[in-house]
Amino acid sequence: MNNQAVLKTGPFGSKLKTDYFKSVGVPVIPIAALQEDGLNHNEFFYLDPAHVSDFAEYETVAGDIVFSRVADVGRCHLINDADTGFIISSNLIRIRIDQKLATPTYIWLLLKYSVDIRRQIAALTTQAAGRLLINTNTLERLVFMIPEQSYQSYVIARYSALRGSKDWIGTRLKSATGMLSTSRELLLTAERA
To answer: Helices 115-124 and 104-113 meet at what angle, rounded to 10?
Structure first.
């Protein structure tokens, strides 16, 4: 399989010049935008729409995974419909999954949470000029099994259920913390009266 069809490093500074950035336009995703719960839009740069056609090969589509290739190597985000058409920065690798072979969500979960994959990424990561980095040639050396679609769906469903539980617990914790704070204030007010 052609490496460039699956893995694509973002455009480097000589191609994506800072002169092309505007206050509005097409979002460019930097590493800082990759957060635990999605993309932080406050970290985006914006490409002047007049230059977008020059960067079509770096655009994202739903199901792509954007992967940090420097500094915080391995931080990643699964592109959804709302993120389609964004441009990756030079510090990211776009991973385009052949959906006949694997579900993008399953591969994203492997990259993000598999201890074995994280160890392989650490072993493939090099250091240059004081920065950790990985490139498409080394990233394509990751070795892992792709199970049947039914198992991939099972793992995704379990993750979604756990994620839902985490969100529910977070909401309940926030509510309990608010109630505790209100109770403290009422007690302090009662003591002063």
So the answer is: 70
Q: Is 14 helix (H, G, I), strand (E, B) or coil?
A: coil
Distance CA 152, CA 13 (A): 38
| CB count in 10 Å sphere of residue 16 | 22
Structure tokens at 43: 């970290």
Q: 3-145 falls under which CATH superfamily? A: DNA methylase specificity domains (3.90.220.20)
pLDDT (tens, 9 = 90+) of the chain, 193 residues, equals 344 468 999 888 678 777 788 888 899 999 999 998 889 999 999 998 888 888 999 999 999 999 999 888 888 999 999 999 999 999 999 999 998 889 999 999 999 999 999 899 989 888 777 778 888 988 889 988 899 999 999 999 988 888 766 566 767 667 777 677 776 676 667 666 6
Stated pTM of the model: 0.79
Q: Which amino acid is at 66?
A: V
Classify 35 as helix, strand or coil.
Answer: strand
Listed residue (115, 8, 137, 144) closest to 64, CA to CA:
8
Residue ranges covered by each domain of the chain = 3-145, 147-193
* 27 contacts: CB under 8 Å, gap ≥ 6: 41, 44, 45, 46, 47, 86, 87
